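Saturday, quiet lab. Running sequence design on the structure tokens for the scaffold JK sent over.
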């Protein structure tokens, strides 16, 4: 019964629970410590995903039986299950200590099955912590041990773990190939539970490669199998993946509906990392729906768990999304701090991936070189002719080393170029308004400040352009239409602003235009042209009851000692004059040392609307 339960672990967990509990009833009348420990360890592993207290109760009963056991290596299994409970709760530091103890104990007791199991647990956790080379060595060794003791199903699980590490190292194509290979064998063996896990992992590889249709298909099949097996944790992970696909395809509302289902299922498992991944996807969806405070709250909740687990890939994504959300909320200082954290985490990931890839190549090369050297020594003892053949093989090995070195150099160069491009993209994003595509406030002011600091600064005109009655557009037609209005105004201004003049969005419904080298008359004419250009925007398709109008505040720079801040203050004051004058007009406020403002051209008739 216990052997049958062990086989059902990877196919139908419900059958495993039934058989293990039936075995325990028999063992109550016919005690056998070794068999009871095995049964309770299977139940512990199953319950670690659902009920931490129940899992801890099973492992406590197993530990109490150890003094009566005839197989000392079973203590490694007890340590491993204790570690699994902690790992599920994101207590990875303590979990790793227990896995180390389990490996040492199984090695000492020469228990191959327990050693393979302990190596698998430790290798998977090392990969989660970014130590890919040592984690890969553990998983490959576990796979070899399972093959040695004829446990092919366990070997497939180890192969799946190896693929997960390649996925974490950024080698998504290799991971995808290994998942496909494992999935075929699992389907042939009827391992339904393992299929659901592998399909989810395959979906993650497609997600990382931005292959959204393939990702959706893998996540959907994983969800279907998990639902048939009544496996809530698998269902929740698959739903998280489907929500990520919805976000990527521009359907944040659909993503939130799926995430609500995932959240309800997640409450049935103590998996803290799963909850954090759901919160990350929720934060992305809420951001796209412009529900910024709720988005920031969800992202910060996810961040706490990812920081505790030191999960670099998810940390980088969360920091980056938080930076964008806080910037959209106008919290530039905190947003910039999170942007810096995202950059730092990205660099850590890059360095770690390069170091770990190199270490992996070195371990594989050293192992291959040692095996070749031993074979060479044996054959040299047989005959000189074989020695000459081995010499040729050694030269071939040197060519392999050179090829590997060249490949590694190319890899490093590729990664360096990718990092440089990433930095450029991140800087562009940091200086660009995401909604309208024009430069943001930081970009405009950083360009204006050097102009004003020159020994003989050129005349600079500044216009602050505010969309009239913008709040009523949002209130009457919705935020989507308000966003459309902002985009149309930005497009109109961008077409009319030519170098050396430059444009940016201050925030909300306000834009700023800086015109170096312009006198007052030219600046005023340009302001009127901008105002009339905005009025010409065709809004009949979506705003049939009004036209968009703008109020404009104009100021000129002082001949010396002026700053972006003082110019903004004067232009803003002029803007308020325009608002008080009835809107849809241009007003100016010159700096105090200047003469009175020249007579402005005749104002056009003001357009009013309800």
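Result came back. Writing it out in full:
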């Amino acid at each position: 019964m216990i052997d049958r339960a062990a086989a059902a672990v990877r196919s139908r967990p419900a059958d495993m629970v039934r058989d293990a509990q039936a075995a325990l009833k028999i063992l109550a009348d016919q005690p056998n410590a070794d068999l009871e420990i095995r049964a309770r360890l299977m139940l512990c592993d199953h319950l670690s995903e659902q009920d931490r207290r129940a899992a801890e109760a099973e492992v406590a009963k197993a530990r109490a039986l150890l003094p009566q056991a005839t197989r000392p290596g079973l203590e490694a299994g007890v340590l491993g299950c204790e570690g699994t409970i902690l790992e599920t709760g994101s207590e990875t530091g303590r979990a790793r200590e227990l896995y180390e103890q389990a490996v040492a104990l199984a090695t000492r007791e020469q228990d191959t099955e327990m050693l393979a199991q302990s190596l698998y647990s430790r290798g998977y956790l090392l990969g989660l912590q970014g130590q890919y080379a040592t984690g890969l060595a553990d998983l490959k060794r576990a796979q070899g041990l399972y093959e040695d003791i004829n446990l092919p199903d366990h070997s497939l699980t180890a192969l799946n773990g190896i693929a997960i590490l390649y996925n974490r190292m950024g080698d998504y194509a290799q991971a995808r190939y290994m998942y496909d290979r494992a999935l075929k064998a699992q389907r042939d063996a009827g391992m339904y539970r393992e299929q659901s896990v592998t399909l989810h992992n395959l979906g993650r590889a497609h997600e990382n490669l931005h292959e959204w249709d393939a990702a959706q298909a893998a996540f959907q099949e994983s969800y279907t199998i998990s639902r048939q097996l009544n496996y809530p944790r698998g269902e929740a992970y698959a739903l998280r993946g489907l929500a990520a696909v919805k976000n990527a395809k521009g359907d944040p509302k659909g993503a939130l509906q799926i995430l609500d289902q995932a959240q309800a299922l997640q409450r049935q498992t103590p998996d803290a990392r799963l909850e954090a991944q759901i919160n990350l996807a929720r934060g992305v969806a809420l951001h796209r729906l412009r529900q910024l405070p709720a988005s920031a709250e969800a992202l910060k909740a996810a961040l706490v768990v990812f920081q505790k687990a030191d999960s670099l890939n998810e940390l980088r994504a969360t920091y980056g999304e938080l930076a964008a959300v806080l910037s959209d909320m106008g919290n530039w200082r905190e947003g910039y701090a999170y942007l810096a954290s995202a950059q730092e985490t990205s660099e850590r990931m890059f360095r770690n991936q390069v170091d770990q890839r190199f270490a992996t190549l070195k371990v594989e090369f050293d192992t291959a070189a040692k095996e070749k050297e031993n074979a060479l020594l044996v054959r040299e003892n047989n005959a000189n002719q074989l020695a000459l053949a081995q010499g040729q093989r050694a030269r071939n090995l040197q060519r392999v080393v050179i090829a590997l070195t060249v490949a590694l150099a190319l890899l490093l160069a590729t990664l360096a170029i990718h990092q440089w491009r990433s930095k450029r993209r991140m800087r562009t994003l940091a200086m660009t308004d995401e909604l309208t595509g024009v430069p943001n406030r930081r970009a405009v002011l950083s360009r204006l400040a050097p102009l004003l600091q020159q020994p003989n600064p050129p005349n600079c005109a500044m216009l602050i352009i505010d969309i009239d009655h913008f709040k009523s557009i949002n209130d009457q037609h919705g935020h989507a239409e308000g966003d459309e209005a902002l985009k149309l105004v930005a497009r109109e201004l961008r077409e009319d602003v030519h170098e050396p003049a430059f444009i940016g969005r201050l925030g909300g419904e306000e834009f700023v235009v800086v015109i170096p080298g312009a006198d007052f008359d030219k600046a005023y004419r340009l302001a009127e042209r901008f105002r009339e250009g905005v009025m010409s925007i065709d809004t009949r398709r979506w705003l049939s009851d009004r036209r968009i109008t703008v109020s404009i505040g104009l100021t000129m720079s002082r001949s010396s000692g002026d700053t972006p801040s003082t110019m903004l203050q004067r232009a803003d004051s002029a803007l308020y004059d325009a608002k008080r004058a009835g809107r849809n007009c241009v007003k100016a406020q010159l700096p105090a040392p200047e003469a009175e403002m020249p007579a402005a051209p005749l104002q056009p008739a003001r357009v009013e609307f309800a």
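Notes for JK: The two ends are 80 Å apart (CA to CA). DSSP finds 24 helices and five strands in the chain. Ask whether to fix the surface positions before the next round.
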